[in-house]
């Protein structure tokens, strides 16, 4: 991977990123790059957050969309455009198509949350729902592009898109020219590619580290294989970076410029979403939280005492899943636990357990006391499932130790 400034013949150039900055700066304000005091203390470095979630559409995607669409000829504009997306790219294309007077059609999977469909329509896009996943929507968009003569706007593997996303890097260096390490989410690779070009061509000593979801790490797999590989479908909290096949251009760019790629688990991302909510009072999507997840999980070394920037790529998280993600984060951080106990089916037995829990300062959230269907319980015994609010892993261990010492049999815990 990266070893200083590298020849990038055939790829997006630094000059193209600079030109993109000149084009989009009158449409897109600089996103803040703020130091997080809490995270700086936690990680032993000066940690800055580049807040792309505060842009109008809620993500970095509008940079690439703006740079692409502002360059279209009048003839291309008259043809109209089409894109496939389940979220951020859809909204960005719709917004700037409306801004530049272009008819835009966006193909989205049928299961796309209503709020994302509504926002895309609100920005002026015509939404077509097709298929059960992004691949089906992408295929339909390509068909419609052919049938209707529309120009297809690729979400990441397009030089103008990559150059537009690279304006994040130029902005960052203006805001904090002495940064040592930049951490960026990777899906298809458009953001990471543009940013890496901007950063490395300005200062090759700055480390650029990518983060992918563990269950669908396409760029890491491709770099290891030294060719673009296609992964099987996977479900992840990081839906914004759940890309089965990275781009050819983005793969070539990141193979040259990227210093490292790390992966994060679903539990690590859920915990990071919760941490950002509690520490920074900020709701972000899973892809954006992946950079913080990599730090909290200790996946990135050599940051002690250094200046580090985490790209917070977007905040478009479905409100219907926020509570589930938060709860998953609470479980991962030891703030919620499930304990399945077997106890005597006698009056007062359950009260004794609840008294012990209260004494240890845990809070009962849910309780299921099952006499009739107590699988595996001997006659005279019953199973009880408890969902408890706790203060961390050590608190959970104290609860378990006390219950075992008292003679209760613990069947299961999460």
TrEMBL record:
<dbReference type="InterPro" id="IPR050147">
    <property type="entry name" value="Ser/Thr_Dehydratase"/>
</dbReference>
<comment type="similarity">
    <text>Belongs to the serine/threonine dehydratase family.</text>
</comment>
<dbReference type="GO" id="GO:0003941">
    <property type="term" value="F:L-serine ammonia-lyase activity"/>
</dbReference>
<keyword id="KW-0663">Pyridoxal phosphate</keyword>
<keyword id="KW-0456">Lyase</keyword>
<feature type="domain" description="ACT">
    <location>
        <begin position="338"/>
        <end position="414"/>
    </location>
</feature>
<dbReference type="GO" id="GO:0004794">
    <property type="term" value="F:threonine deaminase activity"/>
</dbReference>
<dbReference type="InterPro" id="IPR001926">
    <property type="entry name" value="TrpB-like_PALP"/>
</dbReference>
<dbReference type="InterPro" id="IPR005789">
    <property type="entry name" value="Thr_deHydtase_catblc"/>
</dbReference>
<dbReference type="GO" id="GO:0006567">
    <property type="term" value="P:L-threonine catabolic process"/>
</dbReference>
<dbReference type="InterPro" id="IPR044561">
    <property type="entry name" value="ACT_ThrD-II-like"/>
</dbReference>
<dbReference type="GO" id="GO:0006565">
    <property type="term" value="P:L-serine catabolic process"/>
</dbReference>
<dbReference type="Pfam" id="PF00291">
    <property type="entry name" value="PALP"/>
</dbReference>
<dbReference type="InterPro" id="IPR002912">
    <property type="entry name" value="ACT_dom"/>
</dbReference>
<dbReference type="InterPro" id="IPR036052">
    <property type="entry name" value="TrpB-like_PALP_sf"/>
</dbReference>
<dbReference type="InterPro" id="IPR045865">
    <property type="entry name" value="ACT-like_dom_sf"/>
</dbReference>
<protein>
    <recommendedName>
        <fullName>threonine ammonia-lyase</fullName>
        <ecNumber>4.3.1.19</ecNumber>
    </recommendedName>
</protein>
<dbReference type="GO" id="GO:0009097">
    <property type="term" value="P:isoleucine biosynthetic process"/>
</dbReference>
